[in-house]
Input
Amino acid sequence: MDPTVLTGILSALIGGAAGELGKGAWASLTTLARRRFGRESAAVTALEQADSDKPDEIAGLLVDLAAIDPEFGKELHRWTTEAAHIIQQRRDVSNTISGEAQITGPVIQAGDIHGSVSFDRA
Output
């Protein structure tokens, strides 16, 4: 299990990148850890008190547990694949200009844009 990939996924979920689906993915990861290691485990505590500044620490803890417990490692890998898919689905964008559209100027086709967009008409 690559801790860098897991950190990226955890960061995206903590940041709300996948909306309600992301919350569900986070809950399923917490349930997975709770089922494998019990309610009082460090992993469960870290997941329940997720701090947006520490996804790398949570990932490190989970990767360490996966190294010790191969069955958890398999389940964590499965979860990681599913969570990455959820995040990607939220980022995929499909833009279409069709029909009898008559475009007379620049067009931007994009997903979320944070910040300004301008065209230089030099």
The chain has five helices and no strands. The two ends are 50 Å apart (CA to CA). The CA atoms of residues 36 and 72 lie 7 Å apart. The mean pLDDT is 85.
